[in-house]
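Allow me, if you will, to draw on your knowledge of protein folds for a short while. The matter concerns a single protein, recorded as an amino acid sequence and a row of backbone structure tokens. Kindly check, if you would, that the fold set down in the tokens agrees with what the sequence suggests. You will find the record immediately after this paragraph.
***
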Amino acid sequence: MSGKVCFITGIGGGTGEATARRFAQGGYRVAMLARKPDLIGKLEQELEGARAIVCDVADLDRLIEVCGAVETEMGTPDVVIHNAARGTFTPFLETEPENLERNFRVNTTALLYLARAFAPAMIERGSGCIIATGNTSALRGKANFALFAPTKAAQRVLAQALARDLGPKGIHVAYVLIDAAIDAPWTRNRFWPDKPDDFFAQPAEIAEEIWHTAQQGRSTWSFAVELRPYHEVW
């Protein structure tokens, strides 16, 4: 085995795919997790050294199993990116409370499990990077977001706690907050079919900033990285 390893959850046709491509371009062997095999199967054939792994991170036992397999077969990841997300966007009186717990498991608990899986070897090695991707809900709650926003806020605070714990041990933890609609097929077609291109954040440009964050020197580590289109109101 040679080359660095990047472990990414939530590979879809947006930020996840673009990030996998960027790290492969940068010489990393990428372990790609997704609930469905279609896209990651194609990427596995296209990206040198990549591995496609079907995994729903809500299944924490399966996630632990996958982390162990990746560490055995590819080595301890140099970069871990938790991009998988689950949301519920309906009035809180019209949906089941269990959705909050499932969203929390995907968005927050899975991040904790990833850190527990890989941090010990990173600490022993003296280097590593863990990045979580977030969004505006990490900072505020809005109507119809009651079962989603709390999980992203908790994710951000968990990442901050991990950063303060692991930073002095040589592990860079960062939270990349994307305050934007991302230019992916499901967001355009479902929510904003009539918006111009510059309304959206481009996945390749998001991936470039994630790459940059992961490559920062130790004297200038970022924790909170906020990304938004130039005309976004905030």
